[in-house]
Predict the 3D structure of the following.
Amino acid sequence: MLDRKKINRSIGIGCIVTLTFMLTGCSILSNTHKQVPENKKIVAAGAASPVEISFWNPFGGGEGEFVERIVQNFNTSQSAVYVKQLRLESNEYYVKLSTALSSGKGPDVAVAHVDRMSPFVKAKQIMPLDELASEVGFDFKNLEESNVRSVSFTNKPYALPLDTHFHMLYYNKAILKKAGLLNEDETPKLAISTPEAFIQMLKQIQAKVPNVEPFAVNTPYFQEPFLNMYYQAGGELLDNSKAKVNIDNDKSLRVLKFYQQIYASKLSDVNDKTPWDTFHNGKAALWMGGVWEAGYHLGESSLPVGIMPLPALFGSSKQWGSSHTLVIPTYVTKDKQLAAMTFMSYFSKEGSMLWGQAGHVPANRAVLQSQEYLQLPYRKLFIEAQHHVKFAPQTDKYATMFTTLSEDLQSIVMGGLDPEEGLAQLEKKMNSVLAN
């Protein structure tokens, strides 16, 4: 899941699921609709040059390096399709992608977060992929069911999900040892059964290791740590009708007060603009960071890092999460549709291991269950946590709602706004977005 925060962290993790699918022949045939077996291609006899497709993505930093490797591997693996990628800055990616889809001029295949898909589907700007996948021999049944469900509208998949990404609790073993909170096997000895017990444990770190931040909270993107705990408490963004926002309630208030107490007790620095770096530099004991950061933190030999699932403080293990997917615009011609789907299949089947090395949990079940993936550090814990991910509700207003949520939560935690007043204002604004 890419945003400027991940880029700033130089995250060595990739939304880069690479999918390898072998091509034979010279070019994709535009008018043939016959079934082809696994690892085969529909090609046009006599075509001398490959079908060139453009691939848009927002991946920078370490993730961008993984994507580049995937694209290069695909291009050298066959001669029928050539992928030309264009990286866009993450903060402008969806503006440019939306403009391209509206104008009918842009990429042949593009990355889209699962929570960004709904408006594209509603506007008929991206195409269902079930028939196209069948033509190139790709079976959505080989992906995790939760991922396929998240990209399905009217029982048809409109994207190929590459991964699931979410947060884990990273801990500094050296700091926890000084605080008397590390077991002999280097697992944490944390009191994490309730918010109150968690805060007391942070105070123990504060008392015994006074020169570090006990808990680096992602205050610059506070909506993520908020949603993690809000979903744990059983909270929902929309009511059962999906027509009204449900954020002004006791669950959200309890979560906000939990974080406010942490800030007030100096257990976390509310003014820390780069908490991911604070942890990486050995100045924080705990950090709720993305799985995409695993390569970044674990790759630093001098940093004694461990990873565990988020503590279930509010009654369940539910947590915020998202997914990177690949989509094909409806304006794409048939030959390029087949070429794009072939690349997407490769990205899923062959590239998922690279993506798994980066940190995201692959949606491709064969890779997810492979010994090669399971032997990577902490991946069994990643899979355990993945089962508790709660994807965003399917509404074409989600992006605007999420922006409103982000801005108003900042006003509460950074601006000192009363949480009860702030939540009431937030629900009113989000309902206005939903209604209009």
Residues 258 and 365 are 37 Å apart (CA to CA).
